[in-house]
Amino acid sequence: MEAHKKGNLTISGVGSSSGGTVRIAKIDGIGKLDGDVICSEFIVNGKAEVHGNVKASTAEINGTAVVQGNLHSERLRTQGKTIVNGDLIGDRIDITGLLSVAGKCEAERFNANGKLQMEMLNAGNIQITLHGNSSITEIGGELIKIRREPGIDFAKWLKVLPIALGNKLTAQTIEGDDVYVECITAEVVRGTNVAIGPGCEIGLVEYKEKFDQDKASKVKRIEQM
């Protein structure tokens, strides 16, 4: 069932709409939107597919959402699975679950607990807790912290394997002012202050002021800039 009331777009159950400019776009159930959506609030409780771009002041996704274009939201919070086949841009982005971005991802603050797949992540403050294997080609920011899932006894893993399988991030380049990483494989990690935690395999670390390395990680080359 589809309803338009006072500039709102609501799909309850199973339905579809042509999108448009509305105050609130809300899907409770399974919904399909054909065209761009511009709104103050974009809310998904269930499953949504948007054949176009989404521009919202706030967006909240509980379940699964696929946006074929770009997703721009000042404040985005997700729980579940979100796929953006364009760019993802916002001020604050909070992810719980899986996020896949075909284009670039840009934010002031980026917090994620889950599995990430994207080409480029650029944010002032990046906090990532790994749940599953992730891949981000390039990561850039001021403060970058990438950690394994809390609760894993890393010492127990090390008795069997050099790294903890299932919670790992692969990247080409990670660059920031203050960088702390765990459980990553990267070609280059670069920053003013760089700390390499356990479970890492890195080709080159370049740092300006401070460098620290956990004994459980491997770094082929270390250079001070």
What does the secondary structure layout of this molecule look like, with pairings?
Layout: E1 2-5, E2 8-17, E3 20-21, E4 24-34, E5 37-51, E6 54-67, E7 71-84, E8 88-89, E9 92-130, E10 134-147, H1 154-158, E11 169-181, E12 184-196, E13 201-213, E14 218-224
Parallel strand pairs: 2-4, 3-5, 4-5, 5-6, 6-7, 7-8, 7-9, 8-9, 9-10, 10-11, 11-12, 12-13, 13-14
Antiparallel strand pairs: 1-2
Protein name: Bactofilin
Family: Belongs to the bactofilin family.
Pfam families: Bactofilin
Residue share in helix: under 10%
Number of helices: 1
Mean pLDDT: 91
The fraction of residues assigned to DSSP E strands is: over 45%
| CA gyration radius, whole angstroms | 20 Å
Q: Give me the count of strands.
A: 14
CA distance, first residue to last residue: 61 Å
Contiguous runs where pLDDT drops below 50 for at least 5 residues: 1-6, 152-164
The structural class is: mainly beta
Task: Give the H and E element order.
Answer: EEEEEEEEEEHEEEE
The major pleated sheet works out as: 14 strands, mixed
Coarse morphology: elongated
Pfam families: Bactofilin (PF04519)
Protein name: Bactofilin
Family: Belongs to the bactofilin family.
InterPro entries: BacA/B
